[in-house]
Design a protein that fits this description.
Layout (H helix, E strand, L loop, with lengths): L3 E2 L5 H8 L11 H14 L8 E3 L8 H14 L1 E5 L9 H8 L18 E3 L18 E4 L13 E8 L3 E2 L2 E4 L1 H11 L1 H7 L5 E3 L13 E3 L2 E3 L5 E3 L9 E2 L3 H15 L6 E3 L5 E5 L3 E4 L2 E2 L7 E7 L6
Parallel strand pairs: 2-3
Antiparallel strand pairs: 1-14, 3-15, 4-18, 5-16, 6-15, 6-18, 7-17, 8-14, 8-16, 9-10, 9-13, 11-12
């Protein structure tokens, strides 16, 4: 497996509503932001192998394995592992790993299996084939569950690789807190615009399309009751409506520019058999891939309403 780093070196309103001032995510708290920013960038990973932990069995972590993963999660909102489970098609692997990090409430998406875990593999027909995670096509930058209602916000995410593709299927990863820093440093008004409750709307989906849902509006950046930053985003161009004002349009364009070019903190890699990702729903994408017909790509995905407890 080859791992490399990229080249080169709601915020305020949500905090005020929660009564958690001061906070680094409140635009008025410049000194708190400066302290948090310095610490965040000093600890930030610039190579994916900095976040990789060798473990035995994700279902039964040793105390040292769990702490090694937790250290990386606290540092970068994500950790990767390489385990001795290559080829084991067992959806209990992500489930039991999640339990060990306080993840209990699965997002039982209608495409997931009965146990709430989604088996991501290429679908050759049926409802699944209508959705890009079940194809071999490129998936652009996003965080999972951007179309969910606020009470079903996806905060924790697990991916476990049973079999990789024959070629392709690599990921880029970016800690959403780094994306926040890059935008806020460019212009704090970008953060203000993207923290609006109506910044991004996913239009309604009809029942005939597979599963009906109402239109869902919400912010890109928000802060939860514990003061943690969350990011809701998709780079899709169709079936999305951005708030039609100058501030939002400028902020969206700036965010697109951040993601269009590798930063020093944009991480590249591919999950091989037995490897996995555990994260606080960081930004990620996936390249197109070619399957081995005899052993098609299979990843398990588990999405949770809780953040990872690290």
């Amino acid at each position: 497996m080859k791992l490399k780093a990229g080249p080169g070196a709601s915020g305020s309103a949500a905090i005020e509503r929660l009564g958690l001032m001061p906070s680094p995510f409140a635009l008025e708290c410049k000194s708190d932001y400066a302290v948090w920013r310095a610490a965040k960038l000093a600890a930030a990973a610039t190579r994916l192998d900095e976040l990789l932990v060798e473990i035995n069995d994700p279902r039964r972590l040793s105390a040292s394995e769990r702490e090694a993963l937790a250290v990386r999660l606290r540092r970068a909102n994500m950790a990767l592992y390489a385990s001795n489970t290559a080829g084991q098609a067992d959806s209990e692997i992500p489930r039991h790993l999640g339990f060990q990090f306080g993840l209990r409430n699965l997002d039982r998406h209608y495409l997931a299996d009965d146990d709430g875990i989604a088996a991501l593999t290429v679908a050759n027909g049926g409802t699944h084939a209508e959705f890009i995670p079940y194809t071999n096509r490129t998936i652009n930058w996003h965080s999972d569950g951007y179309y969910n209602t606020p009470e079903h916000t996806i905060r924790g995410l697990l991916l476990h690789c049973v079999r990789p593709a024959q070629s392709g299927g690599a990921n880029r990863l970016l800690d959403h807190e780094i994306a926040y820093i890059l935008l806020r440093d460019a212009d704090p008004e970008y953060i203000r615009a993207l923290s609006a409750a109506d910044a991004m709307t996913i239009p309604a989906r009809g029942e005939a399309a597979g599963a009906g849902r109402a239109a869902q509006s919400g912010p890109v950046f928000s802060v939860d009751a514990q003061g943690h930053l969350h990011m809701r985003y998709t780079a899709r161009k169709l079936s999305i409506e951005w708030k039609n004002d100058a501030a939002t349009q400028a902020a969206v364009a700036a965010l697109e520019q951040v993601l269009a070019h590798d930063t020093a903190w944009t991480l590249h890699g591919r999950l091989e058999a037995g490897m996995g990702l555990i994260c606080n729903n960081v930004l990620h994408d996936r390249s197109a891939f070619v399957d081995d017909p005899a052993a098609p790509r299979l990843l398990y995905r588990a999405r949770y309403y809780e953040r990872v407890s690290a």
